[in-house]
Write a structure and sequence with these properties.
27% of the residues lie in helices and 35% in strands. It contains 6 helices and 11 strands. The protein starts with 5 loop residues before the first strand and ends with a helix.
């Protein structure tokens, strides 16, 4: 596994991803087809001191993760960061795509912890939680007012697991965080045990965001 962070160009990432026929790129790491010479790219990486074997192992973790948390974090209107944190067995990897490059690093612990730590530091919003039946959400004054507030940042976060047959199962819903003038709010649509759909909004602490990622991923 990676002993230090590795930064790959989109071209190098694409070449290494297809080195082991890992299939489609991860949703948040979709890069244009490189069309480059595989041998030349790998030789160039070796000359630059990139540990290619370690990078390949990290990509296999991303491709065959047991559990992963991923999403898009928008710090402002012009800066959105795609991030995925995945574990496979005892190995963990974070991948961040930014400005034509993919940065890989080894991580330990729960992927939800690492992903949530990527969010900018913002205090929880002020106010009480809001709950509305999904079919009534458009008529909820509190929800409508919340969604109309100015926002400095937004994130859309998902979870996915492998089932016992080895199939990747992405969460049916996702967590949205919105950074408003009063602080950060979490908004999520979910279905309860009776099949009723709900829209839930609450002031968002990091533990609350982590809890919802696990709830959606289970």
């Amino acid at each position: 596994m990676l002993r230090a962070p590795v930064v790959l160009s989109d071209t190098a990432f694409d070449v290494l991803w297809h080195h082991d026929d890992l299939g489609e790129h991860h949703t948040v790491l979709h890069v244009p087809p490189a069309g480059a010479n595989t041998l030349e790219v790998e030789q160039a990486l070796h000359r630059e001191g990139v540990p290619v074997d370690e990078a390949l192992e990290a990509l296999r973790v991303l491709a065959f993760a047991d559990f992963e948390c991923f999403g898009w974090i928008a710090f402002n209107r012009g800066s959105t960061l795609p991030v995925v944190v995945a574990t496979a067995g005892r190995h963990g990897v974070i991948a961040v795509r930014d400005n034509g490059h993919v940065r890989l690093d080894a991580v330990r612990g729960d992927p939800s912890d690492t992903l949530v730590a990527c969010l900018p530091e913002v205090r929880p919003g002020r106010g009480s939680s809001i709950n509305a039946r999904a079919e009534e959400a458009r008529g909820s004054r509190a929800l409508v007012e919340l969604m109309r507030r100015p926002r400095a940042g937004v994130a859309k976060l998902f979870a996915a697991r492998r089932d016992r047959y080895g199939r990747r199962r992405r969460s049916a819903s996702f967590v949205t965080t919105i950074d408003c003038p009063d602080g950060r709010w979490l908004v999520v649509r979910y279905t309860d045990g009776h099949g009723q759909g709900w829209v839930h909004a609450t002031p968002a602490t990091r533990p609350i965001i982590r809890e919802w990622l696990h709830r959606l991923g289970d």
